[in-house]
Amino acid sequence: MHCSLAMGMLLLLATEASAVRIRLDTNRTEDRKPSSFDISCYMEKDPAGEEGGAKGRSYRGLMTSTVSGRKCQKWSDSKPWKAPSDIKPEADSTKGDISKWGNGIGNHNYCRNPDSSMDKPWCYTSDPKKEKELCEIPKCPENKRNWKKEVKALSAEIGSEDCQCADQLYGSTRTTKDTAVPLALLTGVTRDGKPCRCTRRR
Questions:
Q1: Tens digit of pLDDT for each residue in 13-71?
Q2: Omega before 84 cis (within 30°)?
Q3: pLDDT at 168
Q4: How many CB atoms are located within 10 Å of the residue 122 CB?
Q5: What span, in angstroms and rounded, lies between the C-alpha atoms of 196 and 189?
Q6: What are the contacts of 83-91 at 24+ separation with CB within 8 A?
Q7: Contact criterion met (CB below 8 Å) for 31 and 60
């Protein structure tokens, strides 16, 4: 009985400690610093093959705070500002070889430039004293990567004329009777080469 009472107390203490940690985590005011992957970059002008994405309208990064550190309001919320909930989402679309950017609005608080009203992505803030503010997002570099040229250079470097280059890179991707690993080799062995035997401790 004493053992079960002690275990019950330990379980209660562990549960209480976990609840306190969760409350502390949810009440934290400072968010983690976003990575460069989260932030991404925005396009100042539409690149070839795209339209409607200039001034960061095509931005789909995950930045959720402004240049001053204010948290962005969800686009679907009406408090503290009603205006974001009035903006209707527009989907991205493709017509022929042209990609047309929608506004990127949804049930999130990521920085966007849905109406191209500012020079880069922005958001409505959660601060009732400051309605809108730009987000700290870098401009994408002017020189875009030339993917076709890079593929051609890479294929020449590894000596492949087609997409079936795994043999050159990894040896082979096919398993045959000559390359199969016997099951006996997949079982664990001790240092002296004997098979492992699991024994129960009492």
A1: 444 544 444 444 443 445 567 777 778 899 999 988 999 999 999 999 999 999 999 99
A2: no
A3: 52
A4: 22
A5: 5
A6: 83/124, 83/131, 84/124, 87/114, 87/115, 90/114
A7: no
